[in-house]
Every structure is written in structure tokens, then in C-alpha cells.
Amino acid sequence: MRPKELKHWTTGVAYLLSQPAGRARLLGLAQWLQQICHVDHFVLFVYEGNHRPLALFDTFPADKRHVYVEDYQVGPYLLDPFYLACTRNQAPGLWRLRQFAPDHFYLGEYYVTYYQQTGLTEEIAFFIDLADGAKAVLSLMRSACSPAYSRDEMQLLDCAQAVVEQVVGEAWEQRRAHQPRPAQDLDYKIRETFEQFGAHLLTAREQEVVQMLLRGHSSASVAEHLAISPGTVKIHRKNIYAKLGIGSQSELLGLLVRDLAGQREAVSEAVLRAAI
């Protein structure tokens, strides 16, 4: 970075830190990061225990927010490589989505049915550790009309980690102070539905296979992770499909989506009853 560019960048830091903590400063952060490279969309999710992902900030227009945020929160997040990395306590830093994606992620039903709707060509994200074990993921998205992030862009963005951590951490603390979340709310039912999907018909091992297939693992990858042979995985798939009365992985995802949708309706009804 040249001296003139460096001066412009550091002036931007001073400006964004002068903004009020919360949305104003997060917006300043997004504008500051845009000085490094072009970003089509920003979204900041906080993953905390069994709660649904909390969208703390985003720059989506209204017509796109439904897919990127609202649809995502209903259940697809459970198959998201970034979310799954958080459940494995991924270290803070800047990461590409493809670093965590299973071998068949871009052929899997989650990608085809949900992720492809977003029209993204690439997604990278800052991972930030928050208080009490929560994780924040600030995604920087590029649509199909933009190129992938270059190595130089990634190196420059990586230099911004400390500023990102400070701004995001302050926004989260402000949110917790003004709108604390209950220790356990009804949203945990969404995750429970996924973890118990097919439990009334499938064995524990078959449930493991189902969850990995839905997350984008190939049969070979499932076999490697579960320390079984690919042939055994094929037998499990055959038995799973027979027990569930389906004939393809797309139908498998359809059953999960139906169950998740039903759970969301039940949760919403319970919330309404509690409010009366």
C-alpha cells in the first residue's frame, strides 16, 4: 500500500471509530473495508449456543434480505460451512467459505436449493470470538458479476482483523446490554429438529449419515469421517431412502425443510400464545 493510500486508510479508521457504537459504526466499518476492495454485500451473524443466528448487521436491499437472512435463519444455517466451523470453535481470522466446504458442497442439495439462490460467486468472512462462547461471522460477499477475491486482497483484508474485532465486539456488547437474549428460547427447537431428523425410523448411524449427506459430503467423505467403507455408506443410503419412502437426496432435503418449516410454525404459534 502506498503512503497516500495508507493515509487515506488510517483516516478512515479514525472516522469509523468516531461513529456511535452499533449500526452506525458497523456501517462505517463496511465503508472502510470497501476502501480495500469491492464487496457486494455484508452480513454479520452472531452464533450463540442453541439460538438461531442473530443478524446484527447487513447491507442487503429489501428484496434480497428475505433469502440471505430470513430464509437462512429458518434452518439452512444448520448446513452452512461457516456455521459448522463455529460449532467446531474455529480460530479467529479471515477465511474463505471453500476452506470449510465438504467435498461435494457445490453439488449438494443445500447449495443447489438454497445457496445458489443468492447468486454469489464467493464468500469470505472474519471470524470473531465474543463473550460467553459466542462467535461472530462478518461475511463479505461477491455476486456472480464480480471476480473471486485475489490473494493480495485477502492479505490486505487480513490486516483489518483487529479493527473488525473491536467494532463487532462493541456492537455485540451494546446489543446484549439493550436487548438481552433469554438463556434458552424456543429457537433451540430448530436445531433439535435437525439433530433428531428421522429418529423415529432411522438408526443412530443412519442419522449420522443423513446429516453428513445434507451438509454436502460425498459417500467417500462420509466413509472417511465415520471410519466405515464406502460400500457400507451406500447400504446405509439405500436403507435410509427405503425407510423414509424417498428415492433421492433432493427428496431427503425436502423432508428436512418440511420438518423445519413445521417447527417454525409451532414455535411462532407458541410465541403468540405466550404473548396473549
UniProtKB/TrEMBL annotation:
The keyword rRNA-binding does not apply. SMART domains: HTH_LUXR. Pfam families: GerE. SUPFAM superfamilies: C-terminal effector domain of the bipartite response regulators (SSF46894), Pheromone-binding domain of LuxR-like quorum-sensing transcription factors (SSF75516). Keywords: DNA-binding, Transcription, Transcription regulation. Residues 195-260 form the HTH luxR-type domain. This is Helix-turn-helix transcriptional regulator. It comes from Pseudomonas solani.
